Amino acid sequence: MEHIFSYHHLREFTREVFIHMGCSLEHAALASEVLVSADLRGIDSHGIARLSGYVRLWEAKRINPRPNIRIIHETPSTAVVDGDAGLGLVVAPYAMEIAMQKAAAVGTGWVSVKNSNHFGIAGYHAMKALEQDMIGMAMTNASPLVAPTFSTERMLGTNPIAVAIPAKEQPAFVADFATTTAANGKLEILQRKNEEAPYGWIQDKNGNPSKNPHELKDGGALLPLGGDREHGSHKGYCLGAIVDIFSAVLSGANYGPWAPPFVSFLPLSPNPVGEGLGHFFGAMRVDAFRPADEFKSNMDTWISRFRNAEAIPGKKVLIPGDPEREMHQERLENGIPVIAPVVKDMKEVAAKFNLNF
Amino acid sequence: MEHIFSYHHLREFTREVFIHMGCSLEHAALASEVLVSADLRGIDSHGIARLSGYVRLWEAKRINPRPNIRIIHETPSTAVVDGDAGLGLVVAPYAMEIAMQKAAAVGTGWVSVKNSNHFGIAGYHAMKALEQDMIGMAMTNASPLVAPTFSTERMLGTNPIAVAIPAKEQPAFVADFATTTAANGKLEILQRKNEEAPYGWIQDKNGNPSKNPHELKDGGALLPLGGDREHGSHKGYCLGAIVDIFSAVLSGANYGPWAPPFVSFLPLSPNPVGEGLGHFFGAMRVDAFRPADEFKSNMDTWISRFRNAEAIPGKKVLIPGDPEREMHQERLENGIPVIAPVVKDMKEVAAKFNLNF
What we know:
Chains A, B: This is Ldh family oxidoreductase. Chains A, B: InterPro entries: Mal/L-sulf/L-lact_DH-like_ah, Mal/L-sulf/L-lact_DH-like_NADP, Mal/L-sulfo/L-lacto_DH-like_sf, Malate/L-lactate_DH-like. Chains A, B: Keywords: Oxidoreductase. Two copies of one chain form a homodimer. Chain A has three domains: about 1-65 and about 335-355, Orthogonal Bundle (Hypothetical Oxidoreductase Yiak, Chain: A, domain 1); about 70-180 and about 230-320, Ribosomal Protein S8, Chain: A, domain 1; about 180-220, Hypothetical oxidoreductase yiak, domain 3 (Wheat Germ Agglutinin (Isolectin 2), domain 1, 2-Layer Sandwich). Chain A is built from ten helices and twelve strands. Chain A is of the alpha+beta class. In chain A, α1 runs antiparallel to α2 and α2 (about 25-40) crosses α4 (about 90-105). At the A-B interface, β4, β7, α7 and α8 of A face β4, β7, α7 and α8 of B.
């Protein structure tokens, strides 16, 4: 059972909710655009499905609707931003904009952020750079759900990495992926359907391979990309660790197992090692390396060569970003399906703020 | 059957070989240090085992022993370096040094390199940054051996990524990994032993899973980290693609399936899309984000917290770089074992240049 909403309906509803949380009109408009971009791109776990979670974090006073977001340290190519406990959905665009300004001035810009919250999909922020012929990067740490290789403890988040690279005639290359075998959102789908997960996605509390999608409730963990040692899980662990360190140790946010949980019913660490959640953004001007037109023509060649690679019968080789771009078009035209439990959450939020639904 | 050599013996032999190839004394000393650092760290596939391959590339006139390595474009935080077909073992340190100089000046430095050759282990170059309290990064594209998700064609190299992050009392965090399930060197070990590979490492020429370590000779391919789509191979493909684009499209080197093969018996592409092989280096001054001492203390906490994470009985959670650092100590003290086929190659090289062995 699902309900189909238009993009504009979802975005307007979200905007109203953020306004009722006390956000400025400008912040509410931006935050709703960022949040619902996840639904448009088909990353349902990071869009409207999170809205009630943000409201609960705000009720728990873990989100400041009127943050004083500011640079606390900088050099010509770097900055650290304090998000003042604001919505990651507005802190991240602020920080990405600084990265791009620095890239415009000195070739590249790199911004580490502390004291923030969940920022939606990493891809949205990385793609901002495309408008200015820049390569964009975005990453974030997140609630600890992932066990490093050989660990039975959850030490890292699903810590996504997004990289957006402009092309000329071809659509841009947009990679946006969790550094785990499977994103938590995929596990949530199996939980709802009560279906088994493949081996390599999760382990139980003792570190044994498990197919039970509910394992995380019993002390189990998601696994780093690779799944197990023999298949390179130490590499997925490295990636998740690098994202954690760039996002949270460079900025002074909470890192590793201290990263604050997204769900408001879990307590914050009594001994935080930093402030809030951390992100990391990068922008590299293409013409800081070679003429943008030359680079983008080469990217066209790269993309068409890979798209036309010989493939397994019935399959084709995709370019990172292809599925999400097609979904964006499809959902913009035909609407966004929202599953019943999320519609129920939306109704509760609407009732709380006395909004039309 | 293997022979044990001292580090100094291997390094001196390698230095002599590079001198006889016509390298300057300075370049020969540097190249031998970089090459044999792989053996010290236990990455046997990238060290002395490659020496005869370099000699054959030089004989095929694909390596220029007296390169005019130079910056061809730059901004305050970026540069593109033309390696003039030199040994990657000397081109890469030159480029990494520029990245560090730029980081010293404006906070970060990013250098893309074209017209180079195999550069040894990525970790060596990334670790250079540690000496100056910088985070170091190094990556390179390589001979196409890897099939993207759903492809039956080999389109990418094993394209490694190295990231080195300084700590205070703790040893540095040093990640250095191929973006495939297993590095080619691991496959070579199975080939020599005639042992099967686990599923998820390789596919046959039709894209079917295979355990045959000799599959690459019959048109098979290595698989991106993740192994198959269900286990996230599209993420490993993204990583390999990003390394390829940063290293080769940003610089103007050959990218994707056009990357030149390391082995001299395979022909170069008749229609190259760039010059030589490409690399990418980055350096970020830690104090461009926050005081270095604060950062490094936090890294100590990060490292000790992860090292002491609850583990599967009989196992412990490692920090990236731990195994290589221990190997380095062990081999510096007790010597470096070299397998018989490599010793045979060394003897042939010695005979060619009339060197003592």
